[in-house]
Amino acid sequence: MICTIAIQWNTENELSRDNVVARGELSPPTEAILMGILIEGTNFASKFLRGNGITLQKVRDEIFKMRRKPDMYFFSPKHPPLTEAAQTTLDWAIDEKLNSGENGEITTSHLLLGLWKQEESPGHQILVALGFNDDKAKELRSFISKPTFEGDS
How far apart are CA 32 and CA 19, in angstroms? Predict the structure, then answer.
């Protein structure tokens, strides 16, 4: 089953999208998904990452190390399409949700787990550099699979 979802950018995602545009990229890469999760700040995935020492500033520092140029804030009205790796991350987030057998929305936690499965992506590599690992992914998956879990958006 091939699933494609459209991202509706909201004010929390504007910062990561604008960072992508400022770098001159035509499409948001996987690290933009990671920054978007952290920028929103109130979702469970963001809190989980921060609780494990992964912050927006650390992600931005890792992007700088990878690219050797800083992110800049630039506001543009354009909404570029996703890169292939970012689309695959979203597809894996959908698979993660479907495999859980639960009803409801695809959440930021599913996006983070989808990003984790995208091993060759810069977003995954940033998570590894900041100490995220398979055990943390399993821990996150166990939190969100509990029937009483209501901590994500």
Answer: 8
